[in-house]
Amino acid sequence: MINTDKLLSVAKEAALEAGEVQLSFFGKEKEISHKYNEFDLVTNADKLAEERILSVIKSYFPDHGFLGEESGESNTDSEYIWVIDPIDGTTNYAHNFPHFAVSIGMLYQGKITMGVVYDAFKNEMFWAAEGSGAYLNADNISVSRIVTLDKALLATGFPVNRDGILEENIKYFTKFLYEAQAIRRPGSASLDMCYIACGRLDGFWELNLSPWDVTAAACIIKEAGGKVSNFATDDFNIYVKNIIATNSLLHPEISGIIESLR
């Protein structure tokens, strides 16, 4: 396997390049189009940022594979697959709401091994590699020690594909409103998950996410001492379109509530 430090270095370089693209368009008029429906936005900055990321990575690793939100799949028979979201939180970004991030994860032989999530607006880079701990910029981070839902700050998101899924998540949202101390809906899954990794949030769930939304942050949470799973299993598969992420201590209670309502 290629040295993990090298993979992290390239991912950070690519994230910084994409962050420059994001900031260059932030607060300005953008070209906005739609992908699957009227709620699923994409901007010219999304496309340019992903192009910049791919350019950086391919300059070091031309034979690696890619799974990107905007560019799709390429060379996926490679042992190394980069999983990329150039702007996680595009709706926020399109409205100049300053909560969005670059997400770059790595699958090696199908296993999550590295992740970088960069919030350019706040200059916060979350990063981790398997077995090496999790970090925010240069500081080691870890999950919270909250053990009961009544003291927990949770987060969720609502999908742009609203058919049936919106109603399902409203059930969970309503239940947790009564059980948790509070719930937030910030609008960037990768940042929500990184906020669990550094103790700002205690738990998170969401439906209809894609691999590029969760791969990098899943590595960061695990290395920070947290837990990530899909709804119906303790295991986590990036291709299953639901997720529970917690500080580990709250995982049984949160997953149990969700399972009881399914």
Order of helices and strands: HEEHEEEHEEEEEEHEHEHEEH
Shape: globular
What would you call the quaternary organization? single chain
Number of strands: 15
Query: Any guess at the CATH architecture of the largest domain?
Result: 2-Layer Sandwich
What would CATH call the homologous superfamily of the largest domain? Fructose-1,6-Bisphosphatase, subunit A, domain 1
Termini gap? 41 Å
> Strand portion, in percent?
25-35%
Helicity, in percent? 25-40%
The total tally of domains equals: 2
Q: What is the arithmetic mean of pLDDT?
A: 92
Instruction: Just give the CATH class of the largest domain.
Output: Alpha Beta
Instruction: Please state how the strands of the largest beta sheet are arranged side by side.
Output: 4-3-5-6-7-8-9-10
CATH topology of the largest domain: Fructose-1,6-Bisphosphatase, Chain A, domain 1
- Major sheet: 8 strands, mixed
Total count of helical runs of at least 4 residues: 7
Radius of gyration: 17 Å
Helix/strand-derived category reads: alpha+beta
pLDDT under 50 segments (min length 5)? none
Explain the overall architecture.
The protein is built from seven helices and 15 strands. It has helices spanning 4-25, 44-60, 90-94, 165-179, 189-197, 211-223, 251-261; strands at residues 32-34, 41-43, 65-68, 72-74, 80-88, 101-108, 111-119, 124-129, 134-136, 139-141, 153-156, 182-184, 203-207, 227-229, 242-246. It has two domains: 4-141, Fructose-1,6-Bisphosphatase, Chain A, domain 1 (2-Layer Sandwich); 149-261, D-Maltodextrin-Binding Protein, domain 2, CATH 3.40.190.80. Strand 9 (134-136) and strand 10 (139-141) form a beta hairpin. The radius of gyration is 17 Å and the shape is globular. The strands form three sheets. Strands 4-3-5-6-7-8-9-10 form an eight-stranded mixed β-sheet, sandwiched between helices. The protein has a five-stranded mixed β-sheet with strand order 12-11-13-15-14, with helices on both faces. A two-stranded antiparallel sheet has the order 1-2. With 262 residues, the chain is α+β, with helices and mostly antiparallel strands. Helix 1 packs antiparallel against helix 2 (44-60) and helix 5 packs parallel to helix 6.
